[in-house]
Sequence to fold (125 residues):
Amino acid sequence: MLLADFVLIIHFFYVLFVVASLPVIWLGAWFKLAFVRNPWFRYLHLAAILFVVAESLLGVVCPLTLWENTLRQVETNSSFIQQWLHRIMFYTVPEGLFTVVYVLFAGLVAATFKWVPPEPRRNLP
Fold:
C-alpha cells in the first residue's frame, strides 16, 4: 500500500504542476519574475499537458493511474492518502468532457508562449 500511495503522490504533484504552472506563469509575468520565462520550465510544462492530451485523444489510461491501480489490486483498505487525494484528483464525468478540457487547457498553455514568451538565460559578464 505504501508504494501505491507513493505513486499517487507523484501523480498528484504531476497534476499540480500541470494545473498550477499556468497561473504561476501569468502572475510571474505580471510581477516580472524571471523564472516564468525559463525555457526549460515552459517547455516541460507544455510537454506535460500535451502528454495528457495525447493520452486522452488516444484513449490511453494514464500510466501512473494504471500503476497505482495495479498495486492496489491486492489491497482491501484505502489509506488516508489514497482516500483524500482520490477525492481531489478523480471525478465522475464523461471521458469526452475531460478530453475537451485537456485540449482547451493545452491551447491556453501554448497561447501563453505568445503572451509570455520564454527567454534564453542571459550570461552575465
Notes: The CA atoms of residues 111 and 117 lie 9 Å apart. The radius of gyration is 17 Å. The chain has a mean pLDDT of 88. DSSP finds five helices and no strands in the chain.
